[in-house]
Amino acid sequence: MAEVGAAFEAYEKALVRNDVDAIIGFFAEDAVRYGLADQQIGLAEQRRWRLAQPPLPPGRRLKDTSIQAYGGNVAVVNTLFGYPGSEVLGRQSQTWVRLPEGWRIVTAHVSEPRPGPLPQT
After folding, report:
1. Which end of the chain has the least Cβ crowding within 10 Å, N or C?
2. pLDDT digits (tens, 9 = 90+) for 90-114
3. Element (H, E) at 109
């Protein structure tokens, strides 16, 4: 878990710096990523999308980050994220797998809750 925690921390630093090459380097070749209003399958799609995106707003903060290991080669990272001036906390989840080249993200999902009350079930 310490290795995944360090990799996740390095990924977050690259994300905040908008270092596209570094960000892409954390993903497996055929990784699937679902964003707020986008999706990418594979590194080529993700690279094109990342290069077209503006940097994140300043002041990104994480909350309630958890890392769960499943054996020695799979881990899931979940975290909430937010920005100054907003009460909304987004959600981010990543599945990391230990590959021959090191820990890589194989799936990632980013979402934000809908505004307003939650639907009743």
Report:
1. C
2. 999 999 999 999 999 999 999 998 7
3. strand 102-111
Model pTM greater than 0.85? yes
- Residue in this structure with the two tokens 């639907």, named with its chain if needed: 119
Collapsing DSSP states into helix, strand and coil, what is residue 23? helix
Domains of the chain in start order, with CATH, are 2-111 (3.10.450.50)
Alpha helix segments (H runs only) across the chain: 2-17, 20-25, 43-52
Nearest C-alpha neighbor of 99 from the set 27, 45, 32, 33: 27
Residues facing 13 on adjacent strands: none
For 21-38, give one letter per residue: b (16+ CB within 10 A) or e: eebbebbbeebbbeeeee
Task: Tell me the CA distances in angstroms from 117 to 36, 62, 86, 120, one per residue in order.
Answer: 19, 23, 17, 9
Taking only the tens place, the pLDDT of each residue in 7-65 is 999 999 999 999 999 999 999 999 999 998 899 999 999 999 999 999 999 999 999 99
